[in-house]
Amino acid sequence: MPYYIHTTSHSPTSFLMCFTAAGIMGVICLWKAFQSLKLKKMAEALAASKARSLAMGTVEIEGHVSPLGKVFDPIYQKPCGCYKITVKELQQRGKSSEWVTIHEVASTQPFSLLDATGSIIILPLKVDWEESLTLNEKMGVFSSSNKDAAVVNYLSQFKRAFYSLKVEAFILREGDPLFVMGFAQPIDFQQPQHAAITLQEAARLLKSEKNRFSALDVNHDGQVDDQEWEAGLKNFKEELDRKAAQGKSISGLTKNIGVTPSPNVPLVFGRSRKDLISKTNNQFILMTAFGSALILLAAAFLALNGFSH
């Protein structure tokens, strides 16, 4: 009884297509590396600004998030200043699978960025999020047993048989630290009347103003006790509330200056200036190494293939 041995072979054309694709991917990685380097250089070149002295043009500023309206994130239905939610599905593509975006939503409501000198308006349009995800959770085939009920409920509207879903979310809540790089310009925006500052924000601002905080030590014993702190915080918050009711900011008259993206300047959100520079530097190194390796691999194959002919 004869036995037949089946063999498979890969044509040179299939190898050529694979290595050509690797070369193209390498070029894309190098382009992303260049973008990361460009963003890093821009952040390093700019001097940090304060809300009170913010100039027009390209700026970077750090502060804390303060919502200006009623914005609720779609997952937890809790108040926030800004959010971006992305839902991805694990889909089969030939012999491999990949995560494909099936839903994306982001808030566009302006919010305020507060520092010790005042506040400015941030218009979250086309944001380049360069900070860590607030949420990155899967459900379905590859999900963990510890499921967040709010996430499960949110993703249930997209659930499809035999697929895995995951959600990636950036959510900025009141008081969260934020670094912003973008283009400052006058905007036509009316702040809500009587936008009273919260006690938590007032406490944070009072602690950041060293001279004002030191003045709370009424008995001059070298420390601010609980009674002095509570009395000083109460007076400070009442002062801020009066200014808010009069349409003023902490530093004086409100200047309707907004930080937005422009054709030449992206709007970048990060946890801090230091974190942004570190992250973009790591991205540049990783993408440069990976892209160069792919291009060299593709070039070596094409060269060997050429010699063989």
What keyword list fits this structure?
309 residues, alpha+beta, 5-stranded mixed β-barrel, 4-stranded antiparallel sheet, 36% helix, elongated
Write the layout of secondary structure elements.
Layout: H1 12-45, E1 48-49, E2 57-67, E3 82-93, E4 96-106, E5 111-115, E6 118-122, E7 127-129, E8 135-139, H2 149-155, E9 165-172, E10 177-186, H3 199-208, H4 210-214, H5 226-245, E11 248-249, E12 252-253, E13 257-260, E14 267-270, H6 273-308
Parallel strand pairs: 1-2, 6-13, 7-14
Antiparallel strand pairs: 2-5, 2-10, 3-4, 3-9, 5-6, 8-9, 10-13, 10-14, 11-12
Helix pairs in contact: 1-6, 3-5
Task: Compose a concise summary of this entry.
This protein is α+β, with helices and mostly antiparallel strands and 309 residues long. The protein has 6 helices and 14 strands. The protein folds into 3 domains: 15-45 and 273-299; 54-193 and 253-265, no CATH class; 194-246, no CATH class.
Structure notes:
With 309 residues, the protein is an alpha+beta fold. It folds into three domains: 15-45 and 273-299; 54-193 and 253-265, no CATH class; 194-246, no CATH class. It is built from six helices and 14 strands. It has helices spanning 12-45, 149-155, 199-208, 210-214, 226-245, 273-308, and strands at residues 48-49, 57-67, 82-93, 96-106, 111-115, 118-122, 127-129, 135-139, 165-172, 177-186, 248-249, 252-253, 257-260, 267-270. The strands form three sheets. A five-stranded mixed beta barrel has the order 2-5-6-13-10. A four-stranded antiparallel beta sheet has the order 4-3-9-8, with helices on one face. It has a two-stranded antiparallel ribbon with strand order 11-12. A hairpin with a 2-residue loop joins strand 11 and strand 12. The longest helix is centred in the C-terminal third of the chain and has 36 residues, at 273-308. It is elongated. The two termini are 41 Å apart.
